[in-house]
Amino acid sequence: MKKLGTFLLLATVLVGCQSPDPVQKASPELQREYNAAFQKMLNDPGNLDVVMAYAQVATKTGDYEGAVGAYESVLLVDSNLPRVKLELGILYYRLKSYDTSRIYLEGALASPTLPADVRKPAELLLAKMPKQSKSKRT
Amino acid sequence: MSKSNVAVLLLLRALLVGAAVLGLFSTAQAQGRIGVTQSIQNNPVGKPPGGLDRVLRVGTDVQANEVISTAADDRAHLVFLDGTTLTIGPSSSMTIDKFVYDPTTQKGELAVNATKGVFRIIGGRISKTSTIAVTTPAATMGIRGGIAVIGVQASATTAVLVFGNSLIVTANGVTQTITVPGLSVSTPTGGTPGAPTIAVQGDLAAALATLAGNATAAAATVAAIQTLVASNLGNAVTLQALIQAIIVANTATPITTTTTSTTLAVIVVPENPNQTGGSPN
Do B164 and B144 contact (CB within 8 A), yes or no? Predict the structure, then answer.
C-alpha cells in the first residue's frame, strides 16, 4: 500500500510538472489577477477597456497567446488601430513568429493615423527583426 | 484488511466519486455555455443544437454543437471558457463538434468541423495538454499549444502554423507534421497532404487581413460625409441626403431612401469662415 501511495503522489507531481502553461507558473497573486480579468472579459466581452485590461494582464503573466486573442478581437471591431497592431507585432515577436510580427508592424506603420509614439518602436523592432524564416515574400 | 488499507480504499473511492461528479459537470457544461461571442462584424449566424438560427451579437453565448456561418461581409470572434479563441472569416461555415473543459484541472477537449472559409484558432488552456482537433472536407488536423490559420475551400485545405508546438495534418492515411512557425501544409480534397512548405508571406498577410475587421466601410463613410460637408459649407443638408450619401458609399447597388425630414436638417458651418473644405483630420 505504501508503494501505491508513493505512486499516486509521484503521479500528481509529474502531472503538475508537465504543463508548459505560463499561467500556472505565475505567482498566486498574478494568477488571481489573471483569472479575474479573464472572467470579467467573459462576462463583458464588448467592453474594450475590459478586453484591453485582460490583454495587459495576460502579457504580464506570459500568456502571450491569450493577449493575442484579445487584441485580435479588438482589430475585428476596427482594423485601423496602429497601437493594437504594434502590440500584436511585439507579442508575435516574443513568440518568435517573426513573419507574423512583421506583418503587424508593417500594418501599424502603414496606418494613416499613425502616432509618433507607435512609429518609433515599430521601426526599431522591424530593424532588429531576425531574417527569419526563409519566408517567401511576394 | 488493515486500517491503513481501508483508509486508502476510502480515499480511492472518494476520488472516483469526485471524478464522476466532475464528469457530469463537464457534460452539463458541454450542453450549456461553452464560450461567448466577443466581437463581430455585420451578422454572423449561429444555430445551437435543437434551436433556431440566431444572429450572433457581442455577448451571445455559444454552445457545443452549434453551427456558425458567415456571409461575405461577416466575421465573428469567439472566446471559449478555457481561453481558446476562434476567429471566423467571411463566407465561412463550421460546427463546434465538442467542447469539454474542467476549470479545476484546466484540461479538456475541443473539436471543430470546418466546411468552408477562413479560420484562426488561438489555443487556450486545453491546447496546453491536449490537441485541438479540426476536421475539414480534405483533412483532419491537430493543433497543440499554438496558433493556426486554416483556409478551407471545396478543392483543398491549407493550414499554417503561426506559432506553437505542432500542427499535424492527416488525410487518406498520410500524415504531415509542422513544428516550425511559418510553415504550411496544403491538402487537396480527396488527396493526401503535401510536404510542409514555407508560407508565402503575402498569402498569410491576406489571410490575416481577411480575419480582421473591414476598415473600408468606415473609410467610405467618412469620405462620403467629408464630400458632403465640403460641398455644402454654410448650407442645409437634409438627414435624407446624409443617409443617402452613407448608403451609396457602402452599397454596390445604391438604395433609394424613403426618409424625408427637413426638420432634421443639418446646417454645415465651417469652424473657420475662410475654410473652403477638406479633411477634418
Answer: yes
Q: How far apart are CA A27 and CA A29, in angstroms?
A: 5
H-helix or E-strand containing A123?
helix A116-127
Pick from A72, A90, A91, A109 the residue to mutate for testing the B interface (most B CBs within 10 Å): A72
pLDDT of residue B209: 87
B40, β-bridge pairs: B76
Count of alpha carbons within 13 angstroms of residue B62, beta-carbon side: 34
Give the bridge partners for B181, in sequence order. Answer: none
Contact B230, B202 (CB under 8 A): no
Q: Which 8-state DSSP code applies to residue B196?
A: P
Which residues 256-275 on chain B approach chain A with CB closer than 8 angstroms? none
**Cross-strand pairs, B161:** B148
Over range B12-40, report the average pLDDT. 60
CB-defined contacts A:B, below 8 A: 147
DSSP H helical segments within chain B, as ranges? 3-31, 126-129, 201-211, 215-230, 239-250
Model confidence, pTM = 0.73
Find residue B156's DSSP bridge partners.
B188
C-alpha distance from residue A78 to each of A116, A131, B203 (Å): 20, 30, 21
The pLDDT of residue B110? 97
